[in-house]
Amino acid sequence: MKQSEIKELSVAELQEKLGETKKSYSEMKMAHAISPLENPIQLRSARRTVARIATELTKRELQ
């Protein structure tokens, strides 16, 4: 997810998306531990998406 897409979402949508993305990331991480993923770069992109969403939520709380 790009930063421009994240900025367009509401706070409720961001929280929902954060939960989904964290769950997806943890599932990928466990699957990668058992047998290597075909594309391990997915882990990095999912982790960065979680960080982007969390950063946007924190930014909105401070305003």
From TrEMBL:
An annotated GO cellular component of this protein is: ribonucleoprotein complex
What InterPro entries does the annotation carry? Ribosomal_uL29, Ribosomal_uL29_CS, Ribosomal_uL29_sf
Q: Describe the family membership recorded for this protein in Swiss-Prot or TrEMBL.
A: Belongs to the universal ribosomal protein uL29 family.
Q: Which protein is depicted? A: Large ribosomal subunit protein uL29
Query: Which UniProt keyword terms apply here?
Result: Ribonucleoprotein, Ribosomal protein
> Which GO BP terms, alphabetically?
translation
- This chain's source organism reads Bizionia echini
Q: Which GO terms describe its molecular function?
A: structural constituent of ribosome
Q: Which domain of life is it from?
A: Bacteria
